[in-house]
Specification:
mainly alpha; 3 helices
Length: about 100
């Protein structure tokens, strides 16, 4: 795997010029992503989990609200748990694929 300083040697003058702006955009994007998770995804997920738990506790598993909650939670679990596990497994089995991809070079 290349170190960032080794990769920076091959940068063009334009790359060096826009790198600080790209870094700022990256920080802003990560901040937006984390705030979306904190203020939107987590509260909605907790609400659907409570709705699903209540339906299971009362035996009301045939309504649309139950299935809506169940499918939503399944999608969230797949995105937040299963996909990162698969990505980590893929990265371990192919350690050279990331650095040898060239990224368009």
């Amino acid at each position: 795997m290349k170190r960032p300083t080794e990769d920076a040697v091959t940068w063009s003058p334009r790359d060096r010029q826009v790198a600080p702006w790209f870094a700022l955009l990256t920080v802003g994007g990560v901040g937006f992503l984390l705030s979306t998770v904190l203020f939107a995804i987590i509260p909605v997920t907790l609400e659907f989990a409570a709705r699903l738990g209540s339906a299971l506790a009362h035996g009301a598993t045939e309504g649309a609200r139950f299935w809506d909650s169940a499918v939503f939670l399944l999608i969230v679990v797949v995105q937040l748990v299963v996909l990162p596990l698969l990505a980590g497994r893929s990265r371990k089995s192919h350690p050279q694929s990331e650095s040898s991809s060239g990224l368009g070079r």
